[in-house]
Specification:
The structure is a homodimer. Chain A folds into two domains: about 180 residues, Isopropylmalate Dehydrogenase; about 160 residues, Isopropylmalate Dehydrogenase, CATH 3.40.718. In chain A, about 60% of the residues are buried. Chain A has twelve helices and twelve strands. The longest helix of chain A has 17 residues. Chain A is an alpha/beta fold. The mean pLDDT of chain A is about 95. Chains A and B meet through strand 6, strand 7, helix 7, helix 8 and helix 9 of A and strand 6, strand 7, helix 7, helix 8 and helix 9 of B. Strand 7 of chain A pairs antiparallel with strand 7 of chain B, so a sheet runs across the interface. One 3-isopropylmalic acid sits at the interface of chains B and A.
């Protein structure tokens, strides 16, 4: 089985290196690795954030372990050359439509959250975000209005097939957890959301065991602060999912700890920490690699079916934390490599 | 000067009644009032959430004091008949484009927030939300794709004139406060946001005394949890403003306390609490009227230029709180009328 390693920009190479050490330590038979260039690093080396060789490797691979993209040097490039296009392009080209972002407080780290410990401590939710459609991928551009004004526009849309498949992801995830699904939209204003809501309700008929509710996105943003413990699984579109999943991760308090998976319909997946490339601390050995290590665990579970090994990694991370492993973002002084050492020791 | 009173649905009539009592107690010369039907109440009485007489009254008035709209009985009506269309229609028809939502912790209530007291206590920000454009008012509808699929779509757009005027609102507000403006967009994905950012940067040249920064909306949703005290004024579009302002209000912890103003270019304004119609407690005398009372104070300040009277109301609310006035949402047992009594006593 082939794993594509895409370290990317900023702290990406450092954190992916630690995840690779942990994978190596498991000595899993038949795993091979190939590395590819993405993001600003790829633009600088090959003139494009997602070069054809990288895309070809991604398509060939069983799974992708991704670091982060984003590089201030590239901020003034044309949109299609910016580092972010690597992740958007991979999602689209591989049909990676189901982005799973679990947010759960690690008991040892409950104090890190800006939320009161009793509020943060109750967080155990999963955001299922659609990542192939919505206003991200509709027609967009600049035009001149009838009055000669510059105007920017982006078309938001979802069709029933797109909504149906992500709704299934949401219901299935809820079924495997506590059986509660909250669909988030803005159906009081948007027709895209109305279609979303209609289709989610249709799909619900196949999941009588899951309790479905609907919430407007503005209310969801409030409820994630007021009482995030009320949520089990949230399913939502690309744009609202972008906002709410980042908000939820910050409610947990330790964004350096949170992993994500983005899956297509054939078991292929891209696995990445939810934090960014953190150019300010790149190359200094200060980055917390645990979100990437936990992303590797998700990869073993979702794309490779290696549940026992995934459990082992997760248990090792918990143990390392319990033993006091703390990078600077967690209020400690351990380096990126020392954090990797701590996980290896706990494995 | 004419004030239009639009109580609306749910708890609207109860809370507007208390704000009216407070206004009456100030015995301001030359103020007259006319009441109009909006929302579900208007639909039930007149077949439309924003009947022509209501709209005419709104246009004639110097200011509108608005309760809340939203009625579960109306959930299955066609979109253009739903209660929410009253507020959207008023914003659009009167050109009310600049929605000001201050979020500040009342020292007595700092403990109410789900955020740690030291985090919540530092909140003193103003969200300036554009409310005449964006995906709210673009072309929208249902269509069938080439493959015969149902699709919902909504066009997001901003032109330079729309962005320029709200940018001025943001810069002017920042100048009158602590001189910091953060413009929130999603320019790494949306062309609408790229135009937004370009124009905000152009307008910045006229405000060398204001420190401008830019933030992506996903990051803003994180920062509002992590460290909301970092913000002075946030300026953003209609959709992001909807989400972030509700999130910010919940960070403060007492959504029953927060007022808002929505202004057009001629000093006319609509003033409303940021909370909704709360149908579950309607008619029970449990609603906290203070957000509406504080909205009346904003009305005196922004549309009527009566700064001293606005200050008096705000001081009275602070005093009532300091004296222990607490409705159920603030952990107390006082009724809507008793909360009004407390403000009157403190006036
Ligand atoms: C980098 C950016 C385009 C991306 C997104 O908006 O999807 C990121 O914020 C994410 O959430 O993965
Ligand atoms: C009722 C709804 C249409 C409205 C909006 O989305 O603008 C409300 O949420 C608000 O923020 O005033």
């Amino acid at each position: 089985m082939l794993i594509a390693l895409f370290p990317g920009d900023g702290i990406g190479p450092e954190i992916v290196a630690q995840a690779k050490r942990v994978l190596d330590a498991l000595a899993i038979d038949g795993l091979t690795y190939e590395e590819g260039l993405v993001g600003g690093a790829a633009y600088k080396a090959a003139g494009h954030p997602l070069p054809p060789e990288t895309l070809a490797l991604a398509k060939r691979a069983d799974a992708i372990l991704f670091g982060a993209v984003g590089d201030p040097d590239c901020d003034s490039l044309e949109r299609h050359l910016r580092p972010e296009q690597a992740i958007l392009g991979l999602r689209k080209e591989l049909g990676l439509f189901s982005n799973l972002r679990p947010a759960k407080v690690f008991p040892e780290l409950a104090g890190e959250s800006a939320l009161k410990p009793e509020v943060a401590g109750a967080i155990d939710l999963l955001i299922v975000r659609e990542t192939n459609g919505d206003v991200y991928f509709g027609e967009k551009g600049f035009r001149t209005t009838a009055d000669g004004l510059r105007e920017g526009y982006d078309i938001m849309s979802y069709n029933e097939t797109e909504v149906r498949r992500i709704a299934h992801s949401g219901f299935q995830a809820a079924r495997a957890r506590r059986g509660k699904l909250c669909s988030v939209d803005k159906a009081n204003v948007l027709e895209t959301s109305q279609l979303w809501r209609d289709v989610v309700i249709e799909v619900a008929a196949e999941y009588p065991d899951v309790a479905l509710s609907h919430m407007y996105v503005d209310n969801a943003a409030m409820q994630l602060v007021r009482d995030p413990g009320q949520f089990d699984v949230i399913v939502t579109g690309n744009l609202f999912g972008d906002i709410l999943s980042d908000q939820a991760s910050m409610c947990v308090g330790s964004i350096g700890m949170l992993a994500s998976a983005t899956l297509n319909g054939s078991g292929q997946g891209l696995y990445e920490p939810i934090h960014g490339s953190a150019p300010d601390i790149a190359g200094q050995g200060k980055a917390n690699p645990l979100a990437t290590v936990l992303s590797a665990a998700m990869m073993l579970r979702y794309s490779l079916g290696l549940h026992a090994q995934a459990d082992r990694i997760e248990a090792a991370v918990e143990k390392a934390l319990a033993d006091g492993a703390r990078s600077p973002d967690l209020g400690g002084g351990m380096s990126t490599v020392e954090m990797g050492d701590a996980v290896l020791a706990a494995l």
